[in-house]
């Protein structure tokens, strides 16, 4: 990184250091303890990459140590490769050479390997059946009315736009069909919004951690990512940090996952949603809300009161919402959508002629049938119960087999975000292949490779399979910690 993107003040950094083992114990020199604590904060994603640190004198005053201690700590960080400095620009966090940003991905697990390899890399359960097949069967009867046309619907089929608008309205966000554009999956929606809002070199704020595929898309497109750490313990957003980033970095847009966040499972409460929308509106930043997990609450009885959609707090123009059928119904159903102000939707539609022209008609008819005929609600209810069972089975297996690994139990979503006992997530992903288990390293979900001691585990297995997956993970962890494992080489396809 040749420059910094945001700043951390001395008071905030002092508080972060206090939670990362500073001041050190056991006779460790203060300067080295400072360097170790900053390094840990960067690797765990609690302190972002490309963050300018306070001046030596300011941090020394905040910590109650000498300036010499801070200067020596900064020099230690530079020697390790975690800090770079330039006269007149200050010092900012980086990651060492040889700690590359994840860029590639393996293909999804081939079917012929399913009998021998447990796939914990892809957070995509099987289809919601029999409702999906029933919807396609009904959609075939609807198809002839559309085959007599050109078949190109850049905005989406009217019947599906209307059904999606009705669903937003039922969830507390009054919506017209003119506010909907149907896309080819959520990634198609996010790519279209990215092209509309930003150009190469623009800044986009993202949660830390965040959705791996979105981070990689933004990197590829030349976007400068500004990470904003989540509050710990599934508590939602750190609003103080968000306000600081929105004021200081002035990002063009911010990408957030308020509902059962991927990968942590965080569900952001109402009051935080309203506060972030207000802060973004003041800063002139567009919030892009990813709702692909919004319906995957583990409360199958319907007694839990879920937060309102982020767009419900928007008086107009600040929030663009993205959703899809892939997580709620089936990953092979590549239908997504954008909800925004009608003027924004018109601009997205106009730009679409340069990309894919439209989404498959039969799949759109099937999603419309799911929404209209009750299959969506029935399939989601069944999926919630299955995911909750998988969460409980996988958590129990991890606690029995890997008791030093730490995680918070989410109340919905598709994933567990797990902190290892110090093992590298990338090393575990590489070693896991030797033991018949695939998993996604935590560094894939961080800007510039943060979250090294984490892994993301999807809630796609339960029962005996969950126990066997934990056993194989334990073998991989032992090999990594004992130094007998393979070096981290590959990356894992994530969804």
N→C terminal distance:
28 Å
Largest sheet, in brief, is: 7 strands, mixed
What are the segments in which pLDDT stays under 50 over at least 5 consecutive residues?
102-106, 487-493
Count of DSSP-assigned helices? 16
Please give the number of β-strands: 15
Helix content: 40-55%
**Side-by-side strand order of the widest sheet:** 6-12-11-10-9-7-8
Tell me what you see in this structure:
The chain has 495 residues and is an alpha/beta fold. Helix content is 41%, strand content 13%. The chain has a seven-stranded mixed beta sheet, sandwiched between helices. A four-stranded mixed beta sheet has the order 5-14-15-13. A two-stranded parallel ribbon has the order 1-2. α9 (212-220) links the parallel β7 and β8 (224-229). α15 packs across α16 (463-482). The longest helix has 27 residues, at 375-401. The chain is globular, with a radius of gyration of 23 Å. The two termini are 28 Å apart.
């Amino acid at each position: 990184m040749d420059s910094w993107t945001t700043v951390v003040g001395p008071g905030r950094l002092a508080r972060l250091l206090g939670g990362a083992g500073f001041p050190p114990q056991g006779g460790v020199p203060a300067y080295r303890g400072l360097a170790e604590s900053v390094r840990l904060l960067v690797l765990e994603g609690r302190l972002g990459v490309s963050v300018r640190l306070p001046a030596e004198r300011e941090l020394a005053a905040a910590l109650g140590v000498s300036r010499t201690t801070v200067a020596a700590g900064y020099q230690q960080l530079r020697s390790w490769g975690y800090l770079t400095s330039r006269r007149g620009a200050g010092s900012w966090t980086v990651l060492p050479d040889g700690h590359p940003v994840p860029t590639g991905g393996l293909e999804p697990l081939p079917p012929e390997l399913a009998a021998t390899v447990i796939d914990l890399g892809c957070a995509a359960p099987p289809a919601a059946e029999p409702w999906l097949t029933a919807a396609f069967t009904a959609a075939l009867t609807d198809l002839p009315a559309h085959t007599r046309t050109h078949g190109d619907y850049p905005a989406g089929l009217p019947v599906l736009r209307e059904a999606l608008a009705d669903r937003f309205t039922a969830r507390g966000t009054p919506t017209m069909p003119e506010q909907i554009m149907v896309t080819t999956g959520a990634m198609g929606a996010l790519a279209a919004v990215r092209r509309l809002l930003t150009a190469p070199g623009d800044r986009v704020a993202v949660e830390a951690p965040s959705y791996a595929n979105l981070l990689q898309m933004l990197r590829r497109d030349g976007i400068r990512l500004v990470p904003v750490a989540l509050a710990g313990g599934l508590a939602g957003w750190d609003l103080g940090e968000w306000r600081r980033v929105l004021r200081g970095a002035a990002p063009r847009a911010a990408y957030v996952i308020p509902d059962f966040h991927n990968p942590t499972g965080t569900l952001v409460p109402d009051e935080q949603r309203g506060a972030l929308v207000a802060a973004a509106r003041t800063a002139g930043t567009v919030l892009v809300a990813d709702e692909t997990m919004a319906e995957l609450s583990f409360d199958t009885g319907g007694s839990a009161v879920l937060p309102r959609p982020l767009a419900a707090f928007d008086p107009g123009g600040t929030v663009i919402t993205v959703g899809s059928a892939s997580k709620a119904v089936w990953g092979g159903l590549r239908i997504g959508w954008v909800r925004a102000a009608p003027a924004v939707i018109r601009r997205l539609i106009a730009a679409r002629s340069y990309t894919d022209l439209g989404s498959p008609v039969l799949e759109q008819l099937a999603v419309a049938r799911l929404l209209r005929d009750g299959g969506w609600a029935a399939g989601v209810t069944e999926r919630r119960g299955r995911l909750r069972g998988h969460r409980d089975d996988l958590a129990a297996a991890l606690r029995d087999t890997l008791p030093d690994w730490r995680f918070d139990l989410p109340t919905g979503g598709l994933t567990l975000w797990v902190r290892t006992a110090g093992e590298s997530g990338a090393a575990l992903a590489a070693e896991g292949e030797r033991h018949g288990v695939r998993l996604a390293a935590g560094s894939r979900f961080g800007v510039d490779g943060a979250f090294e001691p984490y892994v993301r585990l999807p809630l796609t297995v339960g029962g005996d399979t969950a126990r066997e997956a934990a056993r194989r993970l334990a073998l991989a962890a032992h090999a990594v910690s004992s130094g007998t494992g393979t070096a981290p080489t590959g990356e894992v396809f994530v969804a």
